[in-house]
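User: Fold both of these, please.

Assistant: Here is the first one.
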Amino acid sequence: MSDSLERLYQAVLAARDLDPAISRTARLFQRGPAKMAKKLAEEAIEVVIDAVNGDTDAVVRESADLLYNLTVLWAAAGVKPEDVWREMARRELMLGIAEKLPKSTVKAPKAIPDKEASAKALPKAVTPPAVRRRIVALEGRSLRKRH
């Protein structure tokens, strides 16, 4: 997956200076980070609605849109995919790949600059926090997307 996102990221960088009249990516860059953030939020909401409604095909389509808009925002913010992968690796060492870092119960170490440093910077075994946040699921009622 990281190869696909890296290719997408490179394509976004290549398209940002194209003619906004023919390139959606260039148009987003021209309109700025606020418009990029709005598009990202819209796509995230569409993924959620489709998931709640059980429309798997739509979740796949909207997730592709979400990843595209996330990549555009990354490029505008100067964030590279490898920056995100490094953060994911750091978190995996702390809590495991399937866990999100708690907001306040665990003090997270600073970002790790590279793979070699990650082995030295974090302890071999990190005990997960004793206090876990409650998982809240959306109710199964039907939601509709706005178009």
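And the second sequence with its predicted structure:
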Amino acid sequence: MKSPLRYQVTEADCGKTSFVNALMYLFEREEIPPQAVDFVTRVTGDCNLGVNGYMRGTSAHALAFMAAWCNDYLVKAGVPIRCQALSGDEVIFEDGSPLVEGLRSGAVAVCGCCIGADHYVLMVGLEGDDVLVFDPYYDTWPPQTFEVPDTGVAWVDDKPFSHNRKISRDVLNDPNAVRYSLFAKSGRDAVLVWRDEVPSV
């Protein structure tokens, strides 16, 4: 059985929530080992640890470390998962890019973007020129009226198991500080997560 995707419970746990949502989207609830959720919780929130105590969210390093842990520990535990960390020029929505080809091949992506501050969302697929996204930062419904309207961002309220936004590639690739731009984030990063074949152990 699947569970609806989660919203973050603090201002800083978008990375943790988006990675857990990747597992929830790809796997049935009974397939997800409890230690996987525990590990994600312990590894994320590493930015400014010891200074402001988890107040700055998740680093690209922590995200890549989680991907490596999944490829090692979870695969050895029999979980059919495969992850690939992306960075820099790999994180762009162009045909042939690892991010686009990964989504086309059935992966989901925990991807950094900007919503006024660095943020992580879950991307679950492509629909024409739009990307299907679950943003874990809960907002009011109907959406608040911003001074600058979100052009190229459609709100979705009837897909709790998959996505709550449709975002155009133009918005994601915008080099300016528009909401959901990948380029407005300090350091582009993402992790692709596939449900893979059951490994032979």
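The chain has a mean pLDDT of 87.
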